[in-house]
Structures are given as structure tokens and as C-alpha cells.
Amino acid sequence: FPLVSGHLDPGSHRKVLMKTGLILLILGHLNFITGALVHGTVLRFVVTARDATSLHYGVTNSASVVAALLTISCGVSALLLSRYLGPAAFKWALLCLSACSSLCCLCCLLGLLVAMGLTLGNQGRVLLAPCSITSAALAPVSRECPFDPTRVYSSTLSLWAISLLLEAMEIFFSIRCLLLTLELLRL
Question: Where is the protein localized (predicted)?
Fold first, then answer.
């Protein structure tokens, strides 16, 4: 960051805020799509209130979608602030949104790690619970199983890994946005 007497100059603030806002906007949308894919292809069939693991899957995935929406809001606020540096209300709004976004993304990251660990630990049995078949590898999509069980384990883990990476990037850029806002507020 180019410094002018110990602080970022306003032109540099605008540029960095705009880039950070655009990155947050893109990351939030990608994570939203990833969460929707996981929910739409697998979790809508799996999540039941009677099973703690499947309930954890549903809560973590829902929280990931909420975190994505928060990240999108943070990105939009950063873009607005890059355009209008003057109003203190924009700065405080971005400070709150970036703090909430980074904390929510951190919680989702930890939840996704636990979900992946549980899935690896039970070898995908919870994901295949709606299927009344003995071998997932032998059965194609049928009336007994509402989705294709042959790739549900690897697909879900792959999508969660992508979401995990996106959450980590969202945390990084939300914290960057938070630090920029603290600099603008001179806190």
C-alpha cells in the first residue's frame, strides 16, 4: 500500500477497497453456488432431525450459505465505500459487515472441517442413509434412492473442499476489508 505520512492516500484506499469488494463479491457468489449444489444434490434428501450427523451437515451447509450472503453484502459495501469515502455511516457499516463476515466464515470453515471429518469417519454411510440398498456401487438411481449413490460420497466431499477453500479466502479478504476500514476510521 502506498503510504502518505503513515496513512494510505485516498486514491489508494479507493483502489484497494474496490478490488477487495469485487473479490468478496465473486467469492461470496461462488460459495453460495457451491452450498446450493451440495444442498440440492444431496443434503435435501439426507438431513433429518433424528440423526445428529445429518443435522450437522444441514446446519453447516445453511450457515455456509448465510456466510456467503454476508460476504456478498460486505463486498457491495466495500464497493460503495470505494466510491463514497466521506460518509462515516458507510465506514461503520463496512466495519460491522466485515467483522461479522470474517467470524461467520470462520465458524463455517470449522463446521465444514468437522462435517468432512465425520463423513470420512463414517465412510459416507450418513450420506447414503436414504437409500435402501446394500451396495451403493452396484445400484443406479432407482425408486429406493432419490439420487445417484455412486458418486455422492466423492462429489459431496469435493464440493465441501471447494467451499472450505472459498471460506478461507473469504476470511482473508474480509479481514483485509476490516483492516482497511479501521485505517479509514483512524482506529
Answer: Membrane
Residue from 29, 18, 12, 9 nearest 78 by CA: 18
Query: What phi, psi does 178 have (nearest 5°)?
Result: -60, -45
Judged on CB neighbours under 10 Å (0-12, 13-18, 19+), 51 is middle
The answer to whether the CB of 48 falls within 8 A of the CB of 38 is: no
Q: Which of the 8 DSSP states describes residue 5?
A: T
The conformation of residue 134, written as its DSSP 8-state character, comes to S
Distance CA 120, CA 63 (A): 21
Q: pLDDT digit string (tens) for 113-155?
A: 998 898 888 877 777 766 655 444 444 444 566 666 667 777 8
For residues 84 and 90, the answer to whether their CB atoms sit within 8 Å is yes
Alpha-carbon dihedral sign for residues 134, 136, 138, 139: positive
Residue 128, Cβ density class (10 Å: 0-12 exposed, 13-18 middle, ≥19 buried): buried
Q: Is the pTM of this model over 0.85?
A: no
